[in-house]
Specification:
The chain has 5 helices and 9 strands, in the order ααβαββββαβαβββ. It is an alpha+beta fold. The model has no long low-confidence stretch (mean pLDDT 88).
Length: 198
């Protein structure tokens, strides 16, 4: 029997690892968070190019005629139907679509939140996205759905001075859980990539 979750998490790990490697090798290529978001989207879409989910979402046949399947990788996908505000920077839709909701309001299987901290202090702020990912996971669990959330801070050289303000935990090796939320830091100064246990 094929473990689709294991395959999905492996593809996620591959796409993120490639994105992190490119950032560490050339951090100046990434001047804005959207640069990282775009690269990660392309890498993840490439990894998951063979995946297409059949959609029974509300009105999909009426709105899109004969289109019945969808690639699950999306950007700026809303946190609906959870009732939470905001959007995921990068998301992978759940394979199990809810026919009660439209295609752009489905549950996400994976949600990724990104931040870029620049050496002049641009982007440095409290990282509330981690808590939002945890809240979304609780909603998914209440609906008997798995959810993997990854909160990532990419740090330009010179911005590492602010890391201590958000760490608040123990550093460990990065993980890619099947049903949990993790907080990762990509520090191009040293370079190093680690997870913060909160």
């Amino acid at each position: 029997m094929v473990d689709t979750d294991a395959i999905l998490i492996h593809q996620l790990k591959q796409a993120i690892s490639e994105t992190v490697s490119e950032f560490m090798a050339n951090p100046v290529d990434f001047l804005y968070e959207s640069d990282i978001q775009s690269l990660l989207f392309v890498k993840l879409r490439q990894e998951m190019r063979e995946i297409r989910y059949k959609s029974e979402a509300k009105e999909v046949e009426l709105l899109f005629k004969s289109v019945r399947s969808i690639n699950p990788v999306k950007t700026e996908y809303p946190l609906i139907p959870s009732g939470l505000n905001g959007r995921f920077d990068v998301a992978v839709l759940s394979e199990k679509h809810d026919p009660a909701f439209r295609i752009w309001k489905q549950f996400c299987r994976i949600g990724i939140e990104l931040k870029l901290w620049q050496s002049d202090g641009t982007g440095v702020s409290r990282f509330d996205d981690f808590e939002r990912l945890q809240s979304y996971r609780r909603v998914c669990n209440d609906n008997r759905r798995r959810f993997t959330g990854i909160a990532m801070i990419f740090v330009h050289p010179g911005a590492e001075q602010w890391i201590k303000d958000v760490s608040g935990g123990v550093e460990s090796e990065v993980s890619f859980p099947c049903d949990d939320v993790v907080f990762q830091v990509v520090d191009s100064s040293f370079p190093r990539w680690y997870e913060v246990r909160r």
